[in-house]
Amino acid sequence: MSAIDDKYSALGGPGGFLGPPADAGAGSEEMDTADRRGRCRDFERGSIYWKSQTGAHEVHGDIRIKWAQLGGERGFLGFPMTDELGTPDGRGRFNHFEGGSIYWKPETHAHEVHGAIRDKWASMGWERSRLGYPISDEKQTSDGRGRFSDFEGGRIHWTPERGAEVQSRIDD
């Protein structure tokens, strides 16, 4: 048994929300990740990733799709550090990754937040802050000098000179 097998069993195995292994037979076995830094296994409704530094964690649904679009474990977010969890406000879901987080709720969909912008949002209380949930991924400003993420209740704007600042209006 591996850490992935243990996690899968803890999540209910074939009768759990991940379902049975994907494509039973070919490609359904545990395998090295493309970067050879960890292991993974795909199931009908999600995947479990393992790396010695992070442990075994599942990713599924729209959060898994967004993570894959951003390069999965080879992207800037890296490996998952949590399973998908419900948010404290009870309206959304999230996974934390080595390099940031992805937050989702039905009305806003899945968006990543990372770095100093994530740190600022976290210091305010995450989705329970006046900013609410992210409604965009982090983007570069039109002048190329900074970064920003839009939230339901405003924007966090970052520049090297001023760091991360909250703006109540969304305008670039």
Describe the model.
With 172 residues, the chain is α+β, with helices and mostly antiparallel strands. The chain has a domain at 1-58. The protein contains three helices and twelve strands, in the order αββββαββββαββββ. The protein has helices spanning 3-10, 61-69, 115-124, and strands spanning 31-32, 39-43, 46-51, 55-59, 85-86, 93-97, 100-105, 109-113, 139-140, 147-151, 154-159, 163-167. The protein has a four-stranded antiparallel β-sheet with strand order 1-2-3-4. The longest helix is centred in the C-terminal third of the chain and has 10 residues, at 115-124. The protein is elongated. The N and C termini lie far apart (52 Å). 37% of the residues are buried.
Helices and strands in order:
Layout (H helix, E strand, L loop, with lengths): L2 H8 L20 E2 L6 E5 L2 E6 L3 E5 L1 H9 L15 E2 L6 E5 L2 E6 L3 E5 L1 H10 L14 E2 L6 E5 L2 E6 L3 E5 L5
